[in-house]
Amino acid sequence: MSTVSVVAPASGVKSRAAKTPGTTVTDPALVKRAVKAAALGNAMEWFDFGVYSYIAVTLGKVFFPSGNPTAQLLSTFGAFAAAFLVRPLGGMVFGPLGDRVGRQKVLALTMIMMAAGTFAIGLIPSYATIGVGAPILLLVARLVQGFSTGGEYAGASTFIAEYAPDKRRGFLGSWLEFGTLAGYIGGAGLVTLMTALLSADDLTSWGWRVPFLIAGPMGIIGLYLRLRLEETPAFAAEVAKAETDRPKVPLREMITGQWRALLLCVGLVLVFNVTDYMLLSYMPSYLTGQLHYDETHGLLVVLGVMALMMIVQPFAGALTDRIGRRPVIATGCAGFLVLSVPALLLIREGSLPAVALGMGALGLLLVCFTAAMPSALPALFPTKVRYGSLSIGFNVSVSLFGGTTPLVVTALIGATGNMMMPAYYMMAAAVVGGFAVWRMAESAGRPLPGSAPSVAGREPSVAG
């Protein structure tokens, strides 16, 4: 029998994973804690984005001059998109920092900043109270959020990927997006409840603040969980290689040394986030603002679609471990290319069954990306630059294409009068994503680049 020894973390980096010769044996308890803490942070991030999207019409009335409702909505989505413009800057700061000082410390820091930015929005006076200062403060708070989230997704997906056994990385990584959906459902459910219970005047005067103020206690809980985490075995091994100092890789090497992987990352994230933000962020406002759909019923439809996605998510993640990431992602790209127009035509038909069917079809296609990307994207990069390079590629793509989706599509509809623009936009994204998945290598069941093979340890017995 091979002897098992505990990896000795260098320079204070903690990790209780064990190793056999050439193989990392993961601790199941640590893996579960890592997945929970990463997913909770993602849930908090997307709770805020969900609330912002679902209550966008009210925020437009609160923070911008009265007059043209379309101009108010565009201004609100403009502030939404502005946060994504600073995400690459956050990625360039937090990503390399995570490769140098550790994933756990940076994820704790991003949690603090996310919670603070969201909580601050709930405290900002309205435009009627302080005038132009209101939208300026809203923009500042969104920029803080955007900067912090620049290190969030890449760090959380890296953390789970580096803890997960090779044969279960897809399943465990899928829980990161399960947290995203849970956050969206929490935000959508709260907004739906408040919309149903409060009058329009109460929602505009004070009710809209409640969801943002909830971020305070959520952030404290998330920070506590992340501070209890230990460093990943892959990062601990990288530190051990450096002997006396932390790994240090110049930012230029993270970009020029990984240019092919970065291009693939940008393409994959483009189709992932354009379709994600189209369905979960833009569609609620499309139903109410463009199709004049009843606001409460529209929110309930989206809520039901996200609940369906949550149910399917872990099974789809496990499927990527069995048949591979590439077939699942390719299926999503083909589905959006073929079904975007029929699905949007169903949504535009207006009846509740038709809207639910169209939204449900898009939601199930989106699961192809939410289930596969958390494990596929970290596998594009070696351990020493994984957090940094993934942060840069992910955030550049999200900033240019994902977060701007509501603003761009709203502007395109306004300029052309063509209500099918959302479908055409998703189809274009599917073409880009299809080319990227064609060029990427399969990573299911294989070690991460630069890391030792990883297998699951045994669960502790009841007898101890």
Write a short abstract of this structure.
By secondary structure, the protein is mainly alpha-helical. It contains 21 helices and four strands.
What would you note in describing this structure?
α1 packs antiparallel against α12. With 464 residues, this protein is mainly α. It has helices at 28-54, 56-63, 69-85, 87-101, 103-121, 127-130, 133-149, 152-163, 169-197, 200-207, 209-213, 215-227, 233-242, 251-256, 259-290, 295-323, 325-349, 352-376, 386-402, 405-416, 421-439, and strands at 5-6, 18-20, 23-26, 454-456. The chain contains 21 helices and four strands. A hairpin with a 2-residue loop joins β2 and β3 (23-26). The protein has a four-stranded mixed sheet. Mean pLDDT is 83; it is low at 1-12 and 460-464.
Features:
4-stranded mixed β-sheet; disordered N terminus; mainly alpha; 21 helices; 464 residues; disordered C terminus
Morphology call: globular
Radius of gyration computed on alpha carbons: 22 Å
The percent range for helix content is over 70%
- The fraction of residues in strands falls at under 5%
Largest sheet: 4 strands, mixed
Give the integer mean of the pLDDT values: 83
Sheet with the most strands: spatial strand order: 1-2-3-4
List low-confidence stretches: 1-12, 460-464
Order of helices and strands: EEEHHHHHHHHHHHHHHHHHHHHHE
| Number of beta-strand segments | 4
Helix count from the secondary structure assignment? 21
Give the distance, in angstroms, between the N- and C-terminal Cα atoms.
Answer: 22 Å
Structural class: mainly alpha
